[in-house]
Amino acid sequence: MKIPTNNGEEFREVLPLHPGYFVSNQGRIWSEKTKKFLALSPLTNERRENQREVESYYYGVALRHNSGQKRYKIHTLVGRYFLPDYEEGLCILHNREDLPYPEINYLSNLRVGTRRDNNRDMYEKGRRKRTYYYNIQGKRYETLIDIQETYRYTKSRVLHRVLSDNYPDWVRIPV
């Protein structure tokens, strides 16, 4: 198999679900079946109540699998197959979000983080705005994840306490 490469580009097969597809450390996807690079498309932003609408820098691709297909964010594929400290359940974060496509998805612009790291990153970079902070037993928490990690509670248990009148020292306060 000969894949045309750019300078310093390396490819790895997207296994086990998608044999025959290869992802590069520069965010390109090669199909062995068609012998072509797949067209990547910008992902649309869904407007959420607690998130301002921003121009998407996420690019995605649909990879066929048996009779169906699955969509992936390009930076997630690059991170999963090239970042050595990636483990299942972790997030792939961008170091800089002001880079143009395709550099935004280069391996050199990606890092591994936890869900908590990802949430903090979204707030710090303005992709999500805070609508609440939480005062739990006299201590301020910025996110539900902070409370979950401190008390080792599930998200539903934290929300139950915050929204219930039975726990007056668990308060959600609008920003």
Biggest beta-sheet profile: 4 strands, antiparallel
Query: Helix proportion of residues, in percent?
Result: 10-25%
Low-confidence runs: 47-54
Radius of gyration based on Cα positions: 20 Å
3D shape: elongated
Derived from helix and strand composition plus strand pairing, the structural class reads alpha+beta
Order of helices and strands: EEEEEEEHEEHEEHHE
**Based on the structure, what is the oligomeric state of the protein chains?**
single chain
State the helix count: 4
Can you walk through the features of this model?
The chain has helices at 74-82, 115-124, 144-151, 155-163, and strands at 11-13, 21-24, 29-31, 36-37, 41-42, 59-65, 68-73, 91-94, 110-113, 132-136, 139-141, 170-174. It has 175 residues and is α+β, with helices and mostly antiparallel strands. It has 2 domains: 11-124, Alpha-Beta Complex (Homing Intron 3 (I-Ppo) Encoded Endonuclease, Chain A); 132-174, no CATH class. The strands form 4 sheets. It has a 4-stranded antiparallel β-sheet with strand order 1-2-3-4. Strand 6 and strand 7 form a beta hairpin. The longest helix has 10 residues, at 115-124. It is elongated, with a radius of gyration of 20 Å. It starts with 10 loop residues before the first strand and ends with a strand.
